[in-house]
Amino acid sequence: MALVVGVLLVGVILVIAAFFLAREAGRLAQEPPAPVFDMTEAYDWVVEHLPDDIAATLTPKDVRRILKLQMDFFKRKGVAVNGSTANPPGPVIVGGAETVDYVIEQGAVEGYEFHPEQVHAVIETQLRYMRAIGAISNPAKPRLTRRDLAADPRPELPPEEPPPELPPG
């Protein structure tokens, strides 16, 4: 009798495990896992793809420092997280003058002197890498609501003119 109960108990546990496994597999098939950012891989990619004129003015240590400062900036803005949240508090624009200014200012505090052209090139190359792995995307188009459409109707097009008449002939 104990053997039958044990076999039934193991069978029930296996059925429950199979159910959860199938459910998670289905969820992952519909919603692929978020891309994982690897700083070493990113650094190697950026060094390889950095424009030659900029690469000639930076040491590998400089590139690594710029990337680290850029990631610090992302953390401050709430877009670089360790899985605690999938969504930053609001729309975040990365890779602009604000990022370049932050890197230059923080670099100066740490004893590095970077020029805006250098920082911008490294950041743009880094953003290309992040797009390539799917970590970021292009800017989202704003959603229009019915209220937006009612408040700002599409302008009417002028009436189409008839084609000019051809002379007989």
Largest sheet: none
The outline comes out as flat
Report how far the terminal alpha carbons are from each other.
Answer: 107 Å
Radius of gyration: 28 Å
Order of helices and strands: HHHHHHH
Could you say which structural class the secondary elements and strand pairing correspond to?
mainly alpha
Percent helix = 55-70%
- Low-pLDDT runs of 5+ residues are none
Please count the helical segments.
7
Number of strands: 0
Would you kindly provide a written description of the structure presented here, covering whatever features stand out?
It contains seven helices and no strands. The protein is mainly alpha-helical. The protein has a domain at 35-82 and 91-135.
Observed structural traits:
169 residues, 7 helices, 59% helix, 0% strand
Brief rundown of the structure:
This protein has 169 residues and is mainly alpha-helical. Helix content is 59%, strand content 0%.
Please specify the SSE layout and strand pairing.
Blueprint (H helix, E strand, L loop, with lengths): L1 H29 L8 H11 L2 H4 L4 H18 L19 H13 L6 H18 L12 H6 L18
